[in-house]
Amino acid sequence: MASLNVGNLGEYLREQRRTAQLSLRQLADAAGVSNPYLSQIERGLRKPSAEVLQQVAKALRISAETLYVRAGILDEKEREELETRAVILADPSVNERQKQVLLQIYDSFRKENAAEAAAAATGAGLTETAGATGAGLTETAGATGAGVNETAGATETPAGVPAAAAAERPADTPDA
User: Fold this and answer.
1) Cα separation, 46 vs 117, whole angstroms
2) What b/e readout covers 61-72, taking b as 16+ CB neighbours within 10 angstroms?
3) DSSP helix/strand/coil, 161
4) Which of 71, 61, 90 has its CA nearest to residue 1?
5) Smallest Cα–Cα separation from 63: which of 39, 34, 99?
6) Are 71 and 62 within 8 A, CB to CB?
7) CA 133 from chain center: how many Å?
8) What residue spans of the chain are helical by DSSP H?
9) Residue 82's pLDDT is what?
10) What is the pLDDT of residues 39-67, one digit of tens each?
C-alpha cells in the first residue's frame, strides 16, 4: 500500500467542503463520521480508511477515486480522468441529470480516442493498404476526369474549328 499524503488530502477535503458550502458538522453528519474525526482528517492528523473516504466523497458528491488518489491509495495513472469527473460532479451550477449526461459524453470521447489510438498503433499494414487503394481510386478518377474533360472540350468547340484542333489547343487560349 502506498504511503498516505494526509496533509494534501485534508486540504483538498476542506476546499471541497467549503465549495459545497457545508460546515464541518454538516459534512460529518452527511458522511456518517464523527465531527472530531473529520476535523482530524482535514488537519492531516488521521489516515482515513477507504470506506470513510467513500462516505465523505458521497456526501460531497465527488468521486471517491479522486479521494483515493489524494490519499495515496490509488496510483496517479488516471488522475486526470478522475479530476475531470470530480470537477463535473462538484459543479453546483449543473443538476444531477446533466452531470450524468456530461460523464457519459466524456466516457464516449475517451473510448473513441482509445480506439483510434489502438487502430493507429496497429495501423501500419492498414495504412499501406489504404494507400494502395487510394492510389487506384486516384488513377481511376484521373482517367475518368480526363475523359470528361475531353468530352467537354469537344462540346465547346467553336464554330468552324475542327474538334481535333480544339482538343490540342490549351484551355486558356482565347477563341478567335
Assistant:
1) 42
2) bbbbbbbbbbbb
3) coil
4) 71
5) 99
6) no
7) 31
8) 6-19, 24-31, 35-42, 50-60, 64-71, 79-90, 96-121, 124-155, 163-168
9) 73
10) 999 999 999 999 999 999 999 999 888 88
Residue type, 94: V
Q: What angle do CA 75, 86, 69 make, to 5 degrees?
A: 20
Residue 15 C-alpha cell reads as 476546499
Ranges of the chain whose pLDDT falls below 50: 1-5, 125-158, 160-169, 176
- Grid coordinates representing 146 are 480526363
Grid cell for residue 74: 490509488
Q: Output the pLDDT for position 124.
A: 52
Report how far apart, in Å, the C-alpha atoms of 58 and of each of 6, 41, 52, 62, 105 are.
Answer: 19, 16, 10, 6, 22
- Which amino acid belongs to residue 57? A
What's the pTM value of the predicted model, to 2 decimals?
Answer: 0.45
Contact criterion met (CB below 8 Å) for 67 and 90: no
Q: How far lies 56's CA from each of 4, 31, 131, in Å?
A: 17, 5, 55
